[in-house]
Amino acid sequence: MTRSSTNSSTSDRVKASPDVVESRNPSEEAPFPPVDGGLADVVYVGHLPHGFYESELHDYFSQYGAVLQVRVARSARTGRCRGYGWVRFADAVAAQRAVDAMHGYFMLGRVLVVQRVPPERAHPELFRAGRRRFRLEALPRRRPAATASVKHPGRRCAQRRQRKVRQLAALHISYHFPGMESK
User: Fold this and answer.
1) How far apart are CA 128 and CA 31, in angstroms?
2) pLDDT at position 136
């Protein structure tokens, strides 16, 4: 079966589905089109190399069949890739072909881990972000305490220093820390 026949049969199934609403505006499309089998054709891709993100995953895995969605796990704090992701295929044959070809594949210094995700383990909101690009939200930064708000600056340091002097005195060692006179 050629790639063009796979893509046309997939688009026919998606158009024939009663849950898909025809719209001319791409922003009004459903977040992900329902396909026969639901989330049965999801593939986990682990040990992703740096620089191999959503668009690269989509382009690379589309050689095995029609890719419906791609998601790369990212850090909410930094926005960097966490090194794994998921690819949703249009049919089970393409998903299995990708697993057979890519599991253990050495790519950019990493050995990929590619596995099928059982339908009962795939969360229904796995691809909830849809076609939305990742945008890093500005998180509030922790500010250092102002020196005026600190009641006793250096108190803990002085207490620690006094404790060390007592420990040394118990060992019959007389030592004074130079430049650090206890108050």
Assistant:
1) 7
2) 63
